[in-house]
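Field reference: sequence -> structure
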Amino acid sequence: MSHRQVPRTGRTFAALTTVAACTAGLLAATPPASAAPGTPRVAARPGTAAPYPNLAPRPPMGWNNWSYYSCNINEKVILDNARALVRTGLAGKGYDTVTVDDCWMAKQRGPRGELVPDTTKFPHGMAYIGQELHRLGLKFGIYEDVGTLTCGKYPGSYGHFKEDARLFAQWGVDYLKADGCNVPRPAGRTKEQIYRDVYEQQSRALLDVGRPITFSVSAPAYFQYDGDAVWHRVIDWSARLGNLWRGGRDIALEQQSPATKWSSIVYNFRYNAGLAALQRPGRWNDPDFLLAGDSGLNRHEMQSQMSLWAMMAAPLISSTNLAGLSPEAREVLGNQEIIAVDQDPLGEQGKVLEQNDGYTVMSKRLQNGDRAVALFNAGDAPRTLSTTAAAAGLPDAPSYWLRNLVTGHGRHSGGTIAARDVPPHGTVLYRVTPRAGGQDAAAGA
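Structure field:
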């Protein structure tokens, strides 16, 4: 990247009056006064954690409150959105994990050093949230931080990894998102050594509790602007320590402008699309949340994000008001053929075939030998986009069946994969099947 700016990797609050102190360049030099007494220094040697079990054989799916609600959460908000997942049928299509992000806890730990939920926001406690989610057939995700404080300045897990992991297991947590704000910087250690140490401690603590907890690592997001060699190396060890990892900036928030939301979607797509070689089945690059349903995004923009995230085998984690989801947003999120591309058992991230400022062409290999091909128009005017079956990696064949996964329409092609007048900010997503003959009996063509 030619333009290096301070990444917005942590939390940005509803009023947008402060930039989160959890960006890569704003790490505390020493633990703040609010850190627990006797907080231990991080371990001296990296590389000691066992490989994390594959608890996410396919990209995780679900809902997280952050982009829409930020810190404005409570028991009702979380459970209303969980019930909406079930009511809309999205849970049945795979959106099965509800994650409570930052600001769920009290500002101070309890008398035994334990994390304490904010009793105003969560009067019944977090174990109750887990019980209710499990009763709905959903999984329970929670947010913490490997630093002394979360990005929202609530107690972090630094110095408390084992105790916090045990508490999460007691609450029935199935998924942990561990951010990286406010990580102390002891003298004589590199930033990478320090981050690797604390994330290893978190990883080991989760392994020791005897409950399978999918682990989302945020470490790479704090290295996006430190040079590609370091960034990619951090992704490599993050894949050993957890199941998925945030690679860069947070996606935009609900209260930001439509233009900012769209720019954020395109930015996160472009940085993540370049990381295909670093992902493998069960270890997922995470470009952050789906915004389908947020105000100001049109149908083409929502559809493009969903299609491009599916091409990248990215986690499909909605972050909007599901209780007020529009019919078109529900259709975008619930498109089973596009979900199938994302969740394809082969688990490959699609590759960029051609890209410039105005468009991207991608191809993704699927388990049955088909290819998914995305023609993305990032520009502000209609554009005709095309590639060929050979360029997309398909074998030579007399004919190819092109099924548009948005419209459901299909047609034959002799080898050209094209879409005319792709609308501004739109994406045409084809599933391309080589055929031995010139005819096809596919249902619903």
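Note: Residues 1-47, 438-445 have pLDDT under 50 and may be disordered.
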